[in-house]
From TrEMBL:
Keywords: Iron, Lyase. Residues 1-411 form the Phosphomevalonate dehydratase large subunit-like domain. The keyword Iron applies. GO terms for molecular function: lyase activity. It holds the Pfam family AcnX. This is DUF521 domain-containing protein. It comes from the Bacteria. The keyword Iron applies. InterPro entries: PMDh-L-like_dom (IPR007506).
Length: 423
């Protein structure tokens, strides 16, 4: 790779051993990718949470993260981060850690870990949606983010530029302000590859999840361009769509001309190129996506409702609470809603948390079952409004899953039965 003088200085250790190890990792990474140079970044989102086993191997966070997050063969003391950096969602809600099957020892370690990150200057947002709580990249801004649903959102909706990074590259970027210049940082790599004619219009949040799941399963990790969307979706619909597309197929960027950031026309989205393939999304494709997402569900006796993947916005919490008025969850059913800490604080201020708790549910923060690899103890059948969670959690925990609308999920919480239907 071609290095600037300042990059060479970091690689030679002039800014300390930790920065040197970070640059060594980034150079290996960049050369493996075929990147010719680095690009500056001032916006990094990563994951620096150690579990008990990892921590005990080194008996320090510096030791654990030197190896796990910088691929260093020696322990180095991590200095404060060089650029603005945030922590994505974590493995537990510290308020409800026992519900996630975590021990007191794991809880104490988690608290120490969060303090460690804060002392490094890392913003402990602890959410998969930093763009909902203050970290909103602008068009053209070069970022280094993890978390597939966040990556596809800021690339597509906001027009920022990032690849889907890992904990090693993001931690190293935090200490250096550098990331390899490749992939979606480069304009030529951001043009569409597949044209999808959307005949079956997505109206509801559930519809957008199904469209995203179809797109991900169909074009895999390419760049779809959606033509024919007649009604501008909300931010939450685009969030839901991107999360489904990323989990189903690895999509990191999509274009909806005139709506998302990079293109106003189909021609602009393709950069004058011819699509690799043209596809049509109609009622049959929608039905196939619905059936595929619900193929893991067999038992209609639901005992776990999971909402908030990606983390709910305050608008989603508000909308949910209107559906809960005058109702109560059935005994034996766990009803969990996930949101960032700052949105939970706002929900509490507005009385929404009380509404959820009066219904018999919990408003949780900082985590999600997929990242934390947990579910309510003894639960075996989940209902969710998240295509992403419906895709991942059965594979992670062995739980059965049903996918549907928020109304379907609330009804399942009240009755203990899944009654969702294709619409």
């Amino acid at each position: 790779m071609k290095l600037t003088n300042s990059e060479k200085a970091m690689l030679e250790g002039q800014e300390g051993e930790a920065v040197q190890k970070a640059m060594e990792m980034l150079v290996r990474y960049g050369e493996a990718l075929g990147a010719e140079k680095f690009i500056d970044t001032t916006n990094v989102g990563g994951y620096m949470i150690a579990n008990l086993e990892q921590y005990k191997r080194f008996n320090s966070f510096d030791g654990a993260f030197s190896e796990m997050c910088m691929d260093s063969d020696v322990t180095v003391k991590l200095p404060p981060v060089k650029v603005s950096s945030c922590q994505f969602e974590t493995s537990m809600d510290p308020e409800y850690y026992k519900l996630a099957g975590k021990s007191d020892e794991e809880y104490e370690l988690y608290k120490s870990n969060i303090d460690y990150l804060a002392n490094l200057g890392i913003q402990v947002m602890c959410t998969c949606t930093p763009y909902q709580v203050g970290n909103v990249p602008v068009k053209g801004e070069h970022c280094a983010w993890m978390e597939s649903s966040a990556v596809v959102y800021i690339n597509s909706v906001l027009g920022a530029r990032t690849n889907c990074e890992g904990r090693e590259s993001t931690t190293s970027a935090m200490l250096t302000g550098k990331i390899p210049y490749w992939g979606l940082h480069i304009t030529e790599n951001r043009y569409g590859t597949h044209l999808i004619h959307v005949d079956e219009q997505p109206i509801t949040m559930e519809d957008w999840g199904l469209l995203g799941y179809y797109v991900g399963k169909t074009v895999l990790d390419k760049i779809p361009v959606l033509d024919g969307i007649k009604k501008t979706p909300t931010r939450d619909m685009l969030k839901h769509f991107g999360a489904a597309a990323a989990s189903a197929g690895g999509i990191e960027l999509y274009h909806i001309p005139g709506i998302t950031s990079d293109a106003n026309t189909v021609e602009e989205a393709f950069g004058g190129r011819t699509p690799i393939e043209e596809l049509n999304y109609g009622v049959n494709e929608k039905l196939n996506a619905y059936n595929l997402l619900n193929s893991i569900g067999d038992n209609e006796n639901v005992d776990f409702i999971m909402l908030g993947c990606p983390h709910y916005s305050i608008e989603q919490v508000w909308d949910l609470c209107k559906k809960l008025e005058g109702k109560h969850v059935k005994e034996g059913v766990s009803f969990w809603v996930f949101t960032p800490q700052s949105i939970k604080d706002l929900a509490n201020r507005n009385g929404f948390q009380k509404t959820i708790e009066d219904f018999g549910g919990l408003l949780m923060k900082d985590c999600c079952p997929a990242i934390g690899r947990f579910k309510p103890r003894g639960s075996s059948v989940m209902a969710t409004d998240s295509a992403k969670q419906g895709h991942y959690l059965p594979n992670i925990t062995g739980i059965e899953a049903w996918y549907g609308s928020v109304d379907d999920c609330v009804e399942a919480a009240v009755t203990g039965k899944w009654g969702g239907k294709f619409n």
